[in-house]
Request: fold
Amino acid sequence: MKKILVVEDEGKIVRLIRDYLEKEDYSVIDARDGEEGLTAFQRQEPDLIILDLMLPKLGGLEVAKEIRKESQVPIIMLTAKSEEADRVTGLEIGADDYVTKPFSLRELAARIKAVLRRSGGSPEESGVIDRGGLYINTESHRVELDGEELDLTPTEFDLLSTLAENPGRAFTRKGLLEEIGRYPGENMTRIIDTHVKNLRKKLEGSEGEKEFIETVHGVGYRFRRD
Ligand code: CA
Reply:
């Protein structure tokens, strides 16, 4: 049974999420402020974290930053409509997805399922991609650059393996979102751009001149063909 940590100070929202997810066969633990959230993350080792951005004591972005220092556990942010800038920052820090309040529990559950599936690897796409010093194992979700293991979030991993499986092929941002099983919704351009920016940073590695992901102006992105 997958264990989900809900970090949210509004008791009513916590109860709704808990009831729904327990019926879906998840085990749910909760924390009511940012500090408690970090403690629960360290002690309970959840499989996924649902993280509200507006939290007492320690804000959601700070919590996400702390978690990312030691773990790539999937994080789904709960955000308000007015928090667009924070949402982008959250994705930059390494959160995997977000839902905007008010959200439907069905939608949240669908996002959870998608993020967990991605982080657990999808068996039908098993294989190894090895290109120019970059090694991607889509079964074990391991990525190495010049022999050094890289820490990627599930979304970054999906984007990179989608691009690397099709070197030379240009993808639109919308196409990429579809490939990784995300709905092409609002702000999709910025979200893909943010993830690609993070990926490029992680891919700089020892040989800085290698640009694996190329920008295709007016279209989107493609993986470099050697
Ligand atoms: Ca809150």
In short: The first helix runs from residue 11 to 23. Residues 6 and 13 are 10 Å apart (CA to CA).
